[in-house]
Amino acid sequence: MTERVAGPLILGRERVLLGQAAVAAAGLVYVLAVDPHDPQAWAPFCPVKLFTGFDCPACGGLRLAHDLLHGDVRAAVHDNIFLLLSSPLLVYQLGCHWRAVREGEWHEVPRALAYGLAGAALAWMVVRNLPRWPLKPSS
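Given the sequence above, the corresponding structure tokens read:
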């Protein structure tokens, strides 16, 4: 079911989308310029790792983005293979959301996809924290 939003809000929606794109671009430029593998580089902390000591499903995401921006796919696989493989799906869903917002519609992620991705992320968190798992992100 799609809902149409009143016309005067279109300019506001366009500004929000433009702002989101600008923040994403600034983040990519930062990750391109600053190496998150360097312990001296500033990067946001992971609350899951901080409170539990475990790597969360997204740990290594900044390092993965840096490696991909520099063309090092092998290092990206090492940093977070789950996030690497699920990124196309996440980018597609983000594109669907942006299109819906631009058109004044509501975008809802399919329930099966949301639960499936959440379950896969939890399973990945368990697997990547096993003692002998070889692909440990460097913190």
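DSSP finds five helices and no strands in the chain. Try to locate this feature in the token string yourself.
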